[in-house]
Design goal:
The longest helix has 15 residues. By secondary structure, this protein is α/β, with parallel strands linked by helices. The chain contains six helices and eight strands; from the N terminus they run E-H-H-E-E-H-E-H-E-E-E-H-E-H. 29% of the residues lie in helices and 20% in strands.
Length: 206
């Protein structure tokens, strides 16, 4: 069983910025991403959290790399329209993959008595995975909304172009059961109102 989410559960939206959809930058000439419905599903969770006035945190990536579209001074640094923070919602600026490195994220979560995290955003195998791994290690009861995340194709050392859905699935598989419990956004929405007797928490790296 997984107990229902309450006011100790924060929704953490990772880098929901326009620059994530600059696909040639991330995946080359064949650049493409998976899960085109990720933004709509994230918006559904965001609405659920706002309705209950549960904690909401956004990260905003301001890259150290000169050529990155994820920079405050570029249009790509802006939040995607359906996923913009409202006044009073915490926005954490970061410049590396983990939302906990060089930021006040942990301090702000502890101040809000947050002990459980639901993580969504971009990219599954980069900033989402790095943040989830650290959250699990830091003792947060961590949940990944796997269908509220997306990534792009990646080239391996031999030059093979790996499909973004494969990259995404392998990343989720690496996190689930070790650093977090991966759930669908429908399951997470259900946990906003009641316990889930049919679901199992599998986070083990604690």
């Amino acid at each position: 069983m997984i107990n229902r989410f309450q006011s100790d559960t924060a929704l953490l939206l990772i880098d929901v910025q326009k620059g994530v959809n600059d696909l040639p930058h991330w995946g080359g000439a064949s650049g493409r991403r998976n899960n085109p419905e990720a933004e709509l599903k994230m918006a559904a969770l965001l609405d659920g959290w706002r309705e209950l006035a549960f904690p909401i945190v956004f990260t905003k990536h301001n890259s150290r790399q000169k050529v990155s579209p994820l920079k405050d001074v570029l249009p790509g640094g802006d939040f995607i329209e359906p996923l913009q923070p409202l006044p009073g919602e915490l926005v954490v600026s970061k410049d590396v993959n983990s939302a906990f490195i060089g930021t006040n994220l942990e301090l702000e979560l502890r101040r809000r008595a947050v002990s459980r995290l639901v993580v969504v955003g971009f990219f599954t195998n980069f900033c989402v995975e790095t943040t989830v791994r650290m959250a699990g290690n830091m003792g947060f009861d961590t949940y990944l909304a796997h269908d509220c995340c997306a990534t792009t194709n990646r080239f391996d050392l031999d030059g093979r172009d790996h499909d973004p859905e494969d990259v995404h699935r392998l990343s989720v598989a690496s996190m689930h059961g070790e650093f977090c419990t991966a759930l669908s956004h429908d399951d997470i929405l259900g946990l906003l109102t009641s316990d889930a007797n049919d679901l199992v928490r599998v986070q083990s790296n604690e």
